[in-house]
Amino acid sequence: MNGLSTGEIAGTVIFALILALLAYRIIRGMPKMAGDITAFRKRTLVWTQVALVLTVLQLNFKAGDWRFGIILGLIVLFTGSIWLSARRYDNARLAESAAEPQESTKE
Fold first, then answer.
1. Do residues 76 and 51 touch, judged by C-beta distance below 8 A?
2. Which residues span the membrane (predicted)?
3. Cα-based distances in Å from 31 to 27, 62, 66, 93, 104
């Protein structure tokens, strides 16, 4: 099995940090997104599934070489975290809008 060189580890860490910063900015900007977040959530789920399938295929067919599998795994984590955040935000928004009419009928 091939070990990762120092440069490859550094590149992977830099790529992970870039994805983490992008995910943070996207997740923090979700409340400001105009329109329906459900469509955004569905797109991120599709990309998560595509990245997961590619990761599994790459790990199955390229035994012993983890380089590309690591990058694909990071992309799975990136898209999955955005999908989960969009799902939680969408569910919270729907629960909030469903609770508002009940409060107005009590007054």
1. yes
2. 6-24, 44-61, 67-86
3. 8, 41, 37, 9, 24
In a domain? residue 1? no
When divided into structural domains, the chain yields a total of 1
CA angle 1, 75, 61 (to 5 degrees): 40
Dihedrals phi, psi of 38, to nearest 5 degrees: -65, -40
Q: Are 69 and 59 in contact (CB under 8 A)?
A: yes
Domain range for residue 65? 6-106
Q: What is the pLDDT along the chain (107 residues), one digit of tens a residue?
A: 567 788 888 999 999 999 999 999 999 988 887 677 888 888 999 999 999 998 888 888 876 677 888 888 899 999 999 999 999 988 888 888 888 776 555 55
At which residue do the structure tokens 């991120």 appear? 44
The two tokens of residue 47 are 């990309």
Q: What token pair was written down for 42?
A: 């569905």
